[in-house]
User: Which sequence fits this backbone?
């Protein structure tokens, strides 16, 4: 064999070995999502009760964020943005009723499949994805498992959730722990994972801690009303919030006449559900550790949006963009993730999940994606601080604000079902109309609507956003700074799709960064 031939063989062999080595290192991805979990109810953020002990420990051994935000405080807009990396103004999914209008070029599932991944959903969907998009699909909802041929246990659970507990449930749940949805979802997720060779992607999506806030023992008693810290705010503070909050309060009181009396128990149930989920996340991840899959798997734990959980005397979501609704838990763990005992300083978004995973698996970020890759910071490498110095949240489906003066009742609109407790839709014409943008930068937060009405808060001093400092002369410089930040974000989020068809070159940073320093 001559030198040229020998060199060629060595080169080919080297490439093959390198390709095999790269393939064996291709990480699995487990995306764990809750529905309607506010970020501050956890030990790592100082909550005094043992509500998320496992995820707290995982966060301190890996990387976590305390300035992570949804793109909009509603399920479908948030979930569609997570899979496309695009904000609601670009996906066109600004409400839970616009899923079919989704607009994008290439999404997360497409990229995973192009890279040879097997894909699965076990749990809640509420996005544009369909069963045919995944290799494996077991869907759950707030009213039970979405299958035709249910087992007797699944029928019992669905009947309880859909009829008895549909609005809210104040007593210990009659559904035993082994039949609670977080438990069966983890069971079925583990069953599928055990059949997989590398690489795989699975979306483990819990419908809880969303209403109807039902939870069984022992979790029901863990967070009894007398044990709970009191909310920082109540109904008396609604006078300092916008009309939409007050309209939502009227709707909740019409639907739940005893809401203020029941609120402590509902808060306790909500926290119990979070603890139940925490235990199931532990079972999922520790099982994969025992099977040797942890080191080659990226885990992301987050929620789609938050819940008032008693803030302003309200439950669920609906009005405005307060921290209780917009800020979400976000923890990254496993393959390649560096240890950060303190939360990252960066302001990040649920829209950053997709581009981050693109980088992690060696794929290009598709054109049209607006989120940024967090992979450099997650792996301990340098990143531009300016890029992550602020974050924006969108809210509203547009048009003029719908007010009390409009000739439409809650009942006629469909937001209220008479004679049934807690049968109301908080995401309605009143709360979702108009347009609002929220910008967080450090300890400060600006909210601006399409009428030019503004709110400015110092979150360190005023975490519940009661003292509005907008147009206060003392803070004119800070207000101007955040207004400029909001304008930059709105210009940045103008959708580039479709890109020019001829001649022009489109420039995109490999990590989708806008700022370089």
Assistant:
């Amino acid at each position: 064999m001559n030198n040229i031939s020998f060199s060629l063989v060595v080169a080919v062999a080297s490439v093959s070995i390198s390709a095999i080595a790269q393939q064996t290192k291709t990480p699995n991805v487990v995306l764990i999502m809750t529905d309607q979990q506010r970020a501050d109810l956890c030990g790592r953020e100082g909550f005094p009760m043992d509500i998320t002990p496992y995820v707290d420990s995982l966060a301190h051994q890996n990387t976590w964020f305390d300035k992570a935000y949804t793109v909009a405080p509603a399920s479908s807009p948030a979930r569609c943005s997570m899979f496309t990396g695009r904000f609601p103004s670009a996906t066109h999914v600004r409400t839970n009723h616009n899923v079919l209008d989704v607009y994008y070029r290439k999404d997360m599932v497409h990229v995973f499949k192009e890279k040879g991944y097997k894909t699965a959903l076990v749990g809640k969907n509420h996005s544009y994805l369909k069963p045919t998009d995944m290799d494996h699909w077991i869907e759950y909802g707030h009213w039970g498992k979405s299958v035709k041929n249910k087992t007797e246990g699944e029928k019992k659970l669905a009947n309880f959730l859909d009829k008895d507990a549909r609005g809210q449930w104040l007593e210990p749940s009659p559904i035993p722990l082994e039949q609670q949805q977080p438990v069966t979802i983890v069971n079925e997720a583990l069953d599928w994972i055990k059949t997989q060779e590398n690489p795989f992607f699975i979306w483990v999506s819990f419908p809880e801690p969303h209403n109807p806030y039902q939870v069984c023992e022992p979790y029901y008693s863990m967070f009894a009303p007398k044990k709970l810290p009191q909310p920082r705010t109540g109904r008396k503070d609604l006078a300092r919030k916008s009309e939409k909050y007050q309209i939502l309060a009227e709707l909740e009181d019409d639907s739940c006449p005893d809401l203020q009396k029941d609120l402590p128990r509902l808060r306790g149930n909500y926290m119990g559900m979070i603890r139940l989920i925490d235990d199931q996340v532990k079972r999922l991840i520790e099982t994969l550790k025992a099977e040797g899959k942890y080191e080659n798997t990226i885990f992301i734990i987050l929620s789609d949006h938050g819940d008032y959980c008693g803030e302003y005397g309200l439950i669920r979501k609906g009005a405005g963009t307060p921290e209780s609704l917009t800020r979400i838990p976000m923890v990254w763990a496993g393959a390649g993730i560096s240890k950060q005992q303190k939360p990252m300083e960066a302001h990040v978004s649920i829209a950053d999940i997709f581009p981050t995973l693109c980088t992690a698996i060696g794929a290009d970020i598709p054109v049209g994606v607006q989120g940024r890759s967090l992979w450099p910071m997650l792996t301990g490498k340098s990143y531009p601080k300016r890029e992550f110095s602020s974050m924006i949240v969108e809210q509203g489906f547009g048009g003029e604000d719908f007010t009390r003066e409009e000739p439409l009742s809650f009942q006629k609109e469909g937001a209220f079902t008479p004679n049934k407790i807690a049968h109301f839709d908080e995401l309605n014409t009143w709360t979702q109309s108009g347009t609002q943008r929220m910008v967080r930068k450090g300890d400060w937060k600006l909210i601006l609507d399409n009428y030019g009405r503004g709110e400015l808060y110092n979150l360190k001093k005023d975490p519940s956003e009661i003292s509005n400092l907008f147009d206060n002369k003392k803070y004119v410089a800070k207000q101007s700074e955040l207004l400029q930040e909001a304008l930059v974000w709105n210009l940045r989020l103008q959708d580039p799709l479709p890109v020019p068809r001829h001649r022009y070159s489109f420039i995109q940073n490999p990590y989708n960064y806008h700022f370089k320093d």
